[in-house]
Design brief:
This protein is mostly helical. The protein has helices spanning 2-19, 39-48, 55-65, 84-93, 109-120, 124-131, 134-141, 165-179, 183-191, 195-208, 215-228, 235-246, 282-289, 313-326, and strands spanning 29-33, 74-78, 98-103, 155-160, 298-301, 307-310. The chain has 14 helices and 6 strands. The strands form 3 sheets. The protein has a two-stranded antiparallel sheet. α5 (109-120) packs antiparallel against α6, α10 (195-208) crosses α11 (215-228) and α10 (195-208) crosses α13 (282-289). The chain starts with a helix and ends in a 7-residue tail after the last helix.
């Protein structure tokens, strides 16, 4: 009878340890488990970080649940007093520490690299090198591109701690692929554009649009210009050309800037530039695929960010003059 009582006491103690706090860690503990870590080393690490107090009970329960053969590598955080059952749940599921990384629409790869350096602690140069790898981008996307510029999907990502630069770029580019709709390819055929050309045009629309409802009209202007062989004369391409060469983006362009020598400068070179000038939003992609059927060839931005559209150059000049009267003059240069 005494032995039965003893067994019952041990079983009760085991059950209590499974459900209640099992470690003595006074604060959140971060544990790193590299790929291929044997379970004995996992146990040692858990005990060393005071997440687990009893090696024997931890290993026994892990063996009973089969977790000793299915621990996922990763970086984990454990709250004070976490139960054994919960510890094993986390290790088996691979739910390690993740970081939220939000990439807004309209960023260049240089912007993404700077953001990744600030938010993820990745070396900026390393992210830039990975994003500029045209051979890797071409292989992943399945069509020839100069770099990953334009193909890093704007999105909020949950990323594992310790992700490398190349992995980040691949995840974002895979996001672009996942967001591509099958019906878009048929539409590209009907408007006579390739994926690269579409994303390039959409990036210009992204750079121009401030009001969401104007995207289709802006895209329509550029489609009209392309159709008749007229220079696009898009400011975002000049800003990109300057940033590409100097590392600094100009928010306001001056007359001399429009002569900046670059194949991306659409004031100097007709047609689309060699590639995208930012990563466009889903809305800009759709607007470029399905532009408004409007007769406009020109537009100018007003002080509120909205645009005034016109059919003829004389009409455009009148609109420019009117907008200048409404907009404070820039400082003299």
């Amino acid at each position: 009878m005494a032995s039965l009582h003893s067994l019952g006491t041990k079983a009760a103690a085991l059950g209590l340890s499974l459900l209640s706090g099992c470690g003595g860690n006074p604060a959140v503990e971060r544990v790193t488990l590299p790929p291929g870590t044997p379970f004995s080393a996992v146990t040692d690490s858990m005990v060393a970080h005071r997440v687990v107090t009893s090696r024997r009970i931890f290993k026994l329960l892990a063996r009973l649940r089969g977790v000793d053969r299915s621990v996922q590598a990763g970086i984990y955080e454990f709250e004070p007093g976490v139960s054994l059952w919960r510890v094993l749940d986390v290790l088996a599921s691979g739910r390690g520490v993740t970081l939220k990384f939000t990439v807004p629409e309209g960023l260049t790869i240089a912007d993404v690299a700077a953001l990744a350096a600030t938010r993820l602690g990745l070396p900026e140069d390393s992210v830039l090198d990975a994003a500029r790898d045209g051979a890797s981008a071409t292989a992943l996307l399945g069509f020839k591109v100069p770099s990953y510029e334009g193909f890093l999907r704007p999105e909020t990502y949950s990323l594992p701690l310790g992700m490398r630069s190349g992995e980040l770029i691949r995840v974002m580019a895979e996001g672009f692929k996942a967001g591509w709709r099958p019906g878009w390819d048929a539409r590209l055929d009907s408007i006579g554009m390739s994926r690269l050309q579409l994303v390039t045009l959409a990036s210009i629309v992204e750079g121009e649009a401030r009001a969401d409802d104007e995207r289709e009209t802006i895209a329509g202007v550029y489609h009209n210009r392309l159709r008749i062989g007229m220079a696009l004369q898009a400011d975002p391409t000049v800003q990109y050309a300057i940033a590409l060469a100097t590392g600094a983006r100009k928010t306001r362009l001056y007359k001399k800037d429009y002569q900046y020598p670059s194949p991306y400068n659409t004031y100097l070179h007709p047609g689309l530039p060699p590639g995208p000038v930012n990563s466009p939003s889903h809305r800009s992609l759709e607007a470029s695929l399905y532009p408004a059927k409007a007769p406009f060839l020109y537009f100018v931005a007003g002080p509120d960010g909205r645009h005034v559209f016109s059919r003829t150059y004389p009409e455009h000049l009148r609109n420019v003059a009117r907008m200048r009267r409404l907009t404070p003059a820039p400082p003299a240069r």
